[in-house]
Each structure stands twice: as structure tokens, then as C-alpha cells.
Amino acid sequence: MSSARFAETIRSSTGPLAATQPTRMPPPTVAAPAVIAPGPAGIAPPRSVNVPRPPAAIPGAPVARVPLTPVEHFRSGTEALRAGEKAKAVTSLQYAAEGGHALAQWKLGRMYAEGDGVPRNNLRAFEYFSRIANGYADDNPGTAQARFVANAFVALGHYYLDGIPDTPIKADPSRAREMFSYAASYFGDPDAQYYLARLYLDGRGVMRDPRQAARWLNRAAHKGQHQAQALLGRLLFKGEDLPRQAARGLMWLTLARESASADERWIADLYDSAFRQATDDERAMAVEYLERWVKGR
Q1: What are the tens digits of pLDDT across the range 199-226?
Q2: Is residue 262 within 8 Å of residue 289, measured between CB atoms?
């Protein structure tokens, strides 16, 4: 494929992909292998609040109590988190999650995945993310909640990619691709687009397709996903599976290096290697591309 043709295929991050782009599939359903009890044992759940007694109420009469809503449980949980009261926060968030509160389900999923305030439990995290995927897959992509739903699909994709040891969740790269593809195409999530591109590039769970990988990397890179910027930069600079565009590759590597964290040394190494190999003309052209990028943001 010529450089001009390739440039045309990836020029726009917002234009429609070619016919080989995965179209939006029906939302994939996820089996829920675990049943989550609402609240740790030994901790009384904050199920109700006191209602102020009317002035005419009879002294000594029982004070009416009304159940907390899922939103109120979620608010209580987030306030407890800010106060450092993790046990109280988990209890409130669990009641909110049981009431169908998506953000509470997502927060608990992250907490169990990372062992933040609770023992790390990937199967329990999987179950919370599954609830979100099954219940909110059709959310409008433009809503504030949509990014959390998309993130739940990405988390499920990782679990399916490698499996969860000693659980019913076994490695299933094809299922992982479904999760990444749905979040990438319907929600336009840049992390999902990056991980989907990796599957196409490695031929894992799908037939290897560097051209499709480049399209997804380009979309994610234009949204500022620095890992996608680094990988796309490497492919273009070295001409791996794609026509070589050294200056544009160096531009992407430069952007990726600026956003990479300290522990992402692989990105800095890619940039350093490319910069050493680039000619003066390629470096100068990369600077021009960077200036256009900044003006276009």
C-alpha cells in the first residue's frame, strides 16, 4: 500500500472507518458468577434516616423512618471515602449497587480489582463490572455515566483476555475482543480502541490485521490516548506492517512521551531510539506536525 493511500485511510480521527470496521453489535451479555451480599458482616447498613417530628406530634411517639434511596446510599459512600472511612463506604456503596446504581457498581468493581479498602478479589470485581455491562450497555454515549460503562467493558475485556485463576472465568481472547470492540465502536472509548488495536496487531482473538489495527490506533491517538500514540508512532517510524512515515511517527512518539507516566519506560525508550535514528529533515518535519497538532486542538 502506498504512503498516500495509507495517509488517506488514517487522515481523520472522526471519519467513518472502512467497511471492515466492526459495526455496533448487540450489547454482549456477561454471566454473573458471584452473588454479592449487601454489606460486610458485622456492619449495620445505613438503611434509613430520621424524619424530623412535626411540631404537633405526640411526645414519645415513634419517629417515622424512610428508606435511603440508592442515590443517597451512593452519596453517603462517597462522603465516607473522602473521610477515609473505607468500611462504612463499602457498606453504603454495596447498598447503592444493590439498588442498581451504576457508579456505585463501578466504584466497588475498581476497589475489589485494586484491593482498595477491601481484600483484592478479581471475581467480585468481575461481577460488579458484569452488572454494569448487562444493565447499561445501551446508555447514550454522550452522558457522563457512559465513560464508566465503557470502562466496565474494558475491564471485562482484560479479565476475559487472561482469565481469572481458580475461577470459572477462563481466558477467552475472542470474548475479550467483543468487549473491547463494543466499547470502542459504540462508546468511542479510546482505551478500548487501543486494546482492540493490540488484538488486531497481535492476531489474538481475531485474524491479524495491521491495517485495522492502525485505524483504531489512529482514532485513539487523536483522542490523546498516549499508549496508542506510542504504538502508532513506532509502526509509522519503523515502517512495521505500514508504509514508513518517519516524521509523523516521531511526532506521535513525542506526544506519547509527554503524557507517559514514570513507570512507562517503554514509551521513553521508543522515543529516544527514534530520535537518535531520525535525520535532521525528519526531526524538522516532526516539529511542523507537532505545531499543526497544537493549533488544531
Answers
A1: 999 999 999 999 999 999 999 999 999 9
A2: no
